[in-house]
């Protein structure tokens, strides 16, 4: 058998092995879906302003929990310096997508909430790759939990 045929046969075998390995890879979910649990309303007894004291008026006030991100946006801005070579803080594209208003968009990209999506994108950037961009972002898994929360707080402040 000529050397050319042996070479082609080896290349075909290696390619086949890659295909089988890729197809048999187990997909592991990264987070359980978040279950919505509404906040209970608080009832407040207030006297009726009409002067009739026989039945107090009951007003229901819904408590709305503000969306708060733990973390310091100023500290996150300092950490973001390492990201600014590839990501802008507006909608312009560099090597990666622009991150203007990324926090608002992040909650609608997957079943994850915005914070979980951004944390996973920082720690495991290959998990979610925006269409049209190459998966070249390095992992920032060496960031502490506080560092990640600070970066997320900064990204939230971008609008």
Summarize it:
The protein is 36% helix and 8% strand. It has helices spanning 3-23, 73-80, 102-106, 114-123, 145-157, and strands spanning 41-46, 57-62.
Structure explained in plain terms:
- By secondary structure, the chain is mainly alpha-helical.
- It has a domain at 73-157: Cytochrome c-like domain (Cytochrome Bc1 Complex, Chain D, domain 2), CATH 1.10.760.10.
- Helix content is 36%, strand content 8%.
- It has five helices and two strands, in the order αββαααα.
- The protein has helices at 3-23, 73-80, 102-106, 114-123, 145-157; strands spanning 41-46, 57-62.
- Strands 1-2 form a two-stranded antiparallel sheet.
- Helix 2 (73-80) packs across helix 5.
- Mean pLDDT is 75; it is low at 56-67.
Fraction of residues in H or I helices: 25-40%
CATH topology of the domain at 73-157: Cytochrome Bc1 Complex, Chain D, domain 2
Count the helices. How many?
5
Ends apart, CA distance between termini: 66 Å
Based on the structure given, which CATH architecture of the domain at 73-157 is correct?
Orthogonal Bundle
Supply the CATH superfamily name of the domain at 73-157.
Cytochrome c-like domain
Q: Give me the side-by-side strand order of the main sheet.
A: 1-2
Roughly how many Å is the radius of gyration? 26 Å
Give the amount of beta strand, in percent. Answer: 5-15%
* Overall outline: elongated
Could you describe the largest sheet, including whether it forms a barrel? 2 strands, antiparallel
Estimated structural class: mainly alpha
Total E-strand runs:
2
């Amino acid at each position: 058998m000529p050397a050319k045929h042996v070479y082609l046969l080896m290349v075909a075998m290696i390619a086949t092995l890659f295909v089988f390995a890729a197809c048999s890879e187990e997909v592991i979910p990264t987070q359980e879906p978040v279950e919505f649990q509404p906040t209970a309303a608080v009832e407040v007894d207030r006297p009726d302003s009409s002067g009739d004291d026989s039945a107090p008026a009951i007003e229901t006030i819904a408590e709305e929990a503000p969306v708060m991100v733990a973390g310091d946006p100023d500290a996150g801005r300092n950490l973001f310096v390492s990201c600014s070579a590839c990501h802008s803080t507006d909608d312009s594209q560099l090597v990666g997508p622009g991150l203007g208003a990324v926090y608002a968009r992040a909650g609608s990209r997957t079943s994850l909430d915005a914070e979980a999506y951004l944390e996973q994108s920082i720690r495991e950037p290959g998990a979610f790759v925006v269409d049209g961009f190459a998966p070249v972002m390095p992992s920032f898994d060496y960031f502490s939990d506080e560092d990640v929360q600070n970066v997320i707080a900064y990204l939230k402040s971008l609008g």
